[in-house]
Design a protein that fits this description.
- It is a single chain.
- By secondary structure, the protein is of the alpha/beta class.
- 36% of the residues lie in helices and 26% in strands.
- The protein has 8 helices and 10 strands.
- The strands form 2 sheets. A 6-stranded mixed beta sheet has the order 6-7-8-3-9-10, sandwiched between helices.
- The structure holds adenosine-5'-triphosphate (ATP) and magnesium ion.
- Adenosine-5'-triphosphate (ATP) binds next to helix 1.
- Magnesium ion binds next to helix 1.
- Pfam families: ABC_tran.
- This is ABC superfamily ATP binding cassette transporter, ABC protein.
Amino acid sequence: MSITIQVSDLQQGYGRTIVLKDINLTVHNGEILGLIGPSGAGKTTLVSTIMGMLRPQKGNVTVLGQPMPNRQLLGKIGYMAQTDALYSALTARENLNFFGVMQGIRAKPLKKRISYAAGIVNLTADLDKFVKDYSGGMKRRLSLAIALVSNPELLILDEPTVGIDPELRQQIWQELHRIAQTGKTILLTTHVMEDAEQSDQLMMIRKGAAIAQGTPAQLIKDYHVKTVEDVFLKAGRNQDAHITND
Ligand SMILES: Nc1ncnc2c1ncn2[C@@H]1O[C@H](COP(=O)(O)OP(=O)(O)OP(=O)(O)O)[C@@H](O)[C@H]1O
Ligand SMILES: [Mg+2]
């Protein structure tokens, strides 16, 4: 298995503020890494750094073997931001088309990819509606479809399941597992324990520090608890008491 994402001794923040400290992370191709942590923990800051939108204050980030930031790699990354960045005066189909063209996909394959991506998020019947007439959840789903449209080597999804009902959430997870099985890598952030349980690897972050890392099963075993939620709570208490589990 080759390495898709490597983060080494990362310190990151904004101006003089430090948000993330001592972050080390390795994600192999074909893996789904779930980044879980409370609001303000630094999840978006970390994924933005991996995307190359923020330059590390200290340490290194490489994606597909290239140091980030790296413009050339953007075509290989499908990104769903936490805040939807859509053209509301265009239809959903026009949005998908625009982002597909930006990613360098030619017209004929793009048409197929748009049908595929819209199907995954149940937007096929709404493709020709204007985005300004979309609900919040529909916009989230369209953002996810845009991330999927180019069949990228790496998918980075910042809170992809917010505003998505349980049935569709399952359908999306099925597809994420299928995509990972084809050797693509997926990094997603979430607050939701169900998502954490579906991930191959977890990184729990709290107050800007990684407090626990591993597979869900291994973490449950190491922490002598029953659920990933309990791992998170116990690791959080350990962090407050400055205890580490190793
Ligand atoms: N552009 C910015 N300028 C200054 N501070 C920022 C900026 N973006 C985020 N922060 C701060 O960095 C910290 C981490 O924010 P971040 O958005 O990474 O958290 P998060 O884990 O993604 O939270 P949420 O679950 O609410 O999305 C917060 O204290 C936030 O106020
Ligand atoms: Mg965030």
